[in-house]
Amino acid sequence: MSSRLYLNYANIVDDLFVEKHTDPMTENYQDYIEMLRRLPHELAAQVANLTPEALTTAHIPGEWTVAQNIHHLAEAQMALFSRFKAMVKEDQPTLMPFDQDAWAQTPDSTHVDIEDSLTLIRVLHRRWAILAESLTEDEWHRTGHHPENGDQTPAELLPYAAAHTQLHIDQIAETLAARD
Question: Would you tell me which of 2, 122, 144, 148 could form a disulfide with 93, CB atoms 3.0–4.6 Å apart?
Answer without folding.
Answer: 144
